[in-house]
Amino acid sequence: MAHRPPMVLDSERAAIGAALKSEDVAEVITAELTDEDFYDETCRKLYGAIKNLSDDGLAITQVSVQERSGIGTSDIEELAYKAAGTTPSQLKTIVSDIRRVAGLRSIYNSCKDTVSSVSKDAKLEEVLEGLEKNLYRLDRAGASEAKDGTDVMQAVIADFIERRNNGGGPEVSTGIQALDKAIIGLRPGKMMILAGRPSMGKTALADTIRRNVVAQGYGVVQFSLEMSAEELLERELSFQAQLNLRKVLAAKEVTDDELARVIAVSGQPGIQGRWFIDDRTYSIAGIRRRARILSGRMARAGIRTGCIVVDYIQLAGENGDGREQSVAAISRGCKLMSKELGCTVLALSQLNRACEYREDRRPMMSDLRESGSLEMDADIVAFVYRESMYDSSVSPEETEILIRKHRSGPTGTVRLRYNPKLVTFEDMPVHQNVATYETTQ
């Protein structure tokens, strides 16, 4: 990489030469490549001139390019002459080759910069964070830092029309109709806090959503700071085999039919490459780094990340002046991660004990532990509440999801059904004729 690769130079010259011969080719080149993709300085200048002419709506000719770039006429004529007869298939290969080598060059430069920045006092997490951030940006190369509002509006309108024609549902669904109605599905760049007192079912609801997202073909990265990966998979086995979780944990009193269902789970179509569990990363810097790696891996396999789960945020260790500063850093990191990776981050949170001493024990925003930053950063704050935890006469299936903050819509209450045997949530049965979503705004 330290010298100019001859084959790369040939590809760059062929691309620029073809663009000088045809405005249609020039349009393809400026759409598919950036000036940073060109190693050769002359080609980079010529690309810049072609791009400027195109942006200004002016004709792209050898004369106009020469005037904009300052490159000699003889050099331009030679490039155009050698590129004569370039076919569309050849152009596609040339563009692909330029992007491939540009990516490798960027990786090389990122690694070199990392090596030069490392000192004996450097912290491993900080070095890895910087390197992974640079490498992840390569996966999203070509995305402008600033976006033209008109272009974005056209994309928003096109997305709106497509969703309307497809029934108006969210692109990434929670798999629970009443919850989708309340929060409009799992939208890119959103941070949702899912909170509750112990044993209310926070992890069970997060698992239900994760399972439904994966079933739609999207990928999920799940950071389990409280439960081990094995515990999560035991719950998944219980659901897949439709077997009481207690029987899965005890592994006894299982009938032959139930055993057959357990064995059959291993033979079902897998979700390999779409659900990743990390139960060993505890800092927000590490979580963001691992999320980038795994999201990038899924993207290269053609799988879009639909959701990232962090269970739960108070267990994520972070250096700070105090617990509130630490949680603030974690909260901010989760929000930035949602925007960076273009998916919903579902962050689970514990509550303090204040609600236990009120007559109405339904949680409020102030019940969030270290609540200030969580309230501010979250787009949605929802609480899982089951009255049966306090009143044994109430069915353990009855569940309320209290939407206390919703940046894109009204707050309200979603009523769901909890299945304690399979530790999962679902919509209320239609025949019960119960309003499953009531707004308060």
What does this structure look like?
The protein is of the alpha/beta class and 441 residues long. It folds into 3 domains: 112 residues, DNAb Helicase, Chain A; 46 residues, no CATH class; 269 residues, P-loop containing nucleotide triphosphate hydrolases (Rossmann fold), CATH 3.40.50.300. Helix 15 links the parallel strand 4 and strand 5. Helix 7 runs parallel beside helix 14.
Count of discrete alpha- or pi-helical segments spanning 4 or more residues: 16
Low-confidence stretches: 1-6
Mean pLDDT: 81
- Per CATH, what is the topology of the largest domain? Rossmann fold
What count of domains describes the coordinates? 3
Lay out the secondary structure.
Elements: H1 6-21, H2 23-32, H3 41-55, H4 62-69, H5 73-82, H6 88-117, H7 124-139, H8 149-165, H9 177-183, E1 191-196, H10 202-215, E2 219-224, H11 229-240, H12 245-250, H13 256-265, E3 275-278, H14 284-300, E4 305-311, H15 323-341, E5 344-350, H16 371-377, E6 380-385, E7 398-406, E8 412-419, E9 424-427, E10 437-439
Parallel strand pairs: 1-5, 1-6, 2-3, 2-4, 4-5
Antiparallel strand pairs: 6-7, 7-8, 8-9, 8-10
Summarize the structure.
With 441 residues, the chain is an alpha/beta fold.
Q: What labels describe this entry?
A:
441 residues, alpha/beta, DNAb Helicase, Chain A, Rossmann fold, 3 domains, 10-stranded mixed β-sheet, 16 helices, 14% strand
